[in-house]
Amino acid sequence: MARTQKKTDTPQYNAPDFLAWHVIDKGEKSYWNKVGAAWRHKDDKGYTLQLETVPINGRIVLRQPLEGPDHQNEKGNGCA
Q: What pLDDT is stored for residue 67 in this prediction?
């Protein structure tokens, strides 16, 4: 019996649950750079954090992505 599988040409990706931001405080200003993302595990008992770069100073903040295409490259609500 032959098996048939549906193949799609484009892979389907899940949107991340959180974006990872590297935050550096300089005086009264904070500088935010996106460094990765996090996805919830299927069993809801953890997250996978994928970093594109690993900072050696500052801190990493996980924030939920803002809704809509106008906010894709913006940081969270500014909380740090």
A: 78
